[in-house]
Amino acid sequence: MAAAAGPGHRKAVHRTQKKRKDREMPQGTVKWFNAEKGFGFIAPEDGSADVFVHYTEIQGTGFRTLEENQKVEFEIGHSPKGPQATGVRSL
């Protein structure tokens, strides 16, 4: 019987994670963003489900907000409520 999580398995997971870092960041369009409440949603270009975005994840200085239909790139993280955009940058 082979071990499910042997050393070879860990290497495969590590390589997969490294490949993800080498890929371009996902891009999308701001569907809506409520500046007063500090959150909104991004529609990814790949057609996947909309992703929640909080103002704290917008890169930049000063007042951080997004405009409807603005093109952005981002990473996808996970919160207790589901996927969340992180490291959001305007294109």
UniProtKB/TrEMBL annotation:
Residues 8-21 have a biased composition (Basic residues). It is found in: Cytoplasm. Residues 25-90 form the CSD domain. It holds the Pfam family CSD. One of its GO terms (cellular component) is cytoplasm. Gene3D superfamilies: Nucleic acid-binding proteins (2.40.50.140). SUPFAM superfamilies: Nucleic acid-binding proteins. This is Probable cold shock protein A.
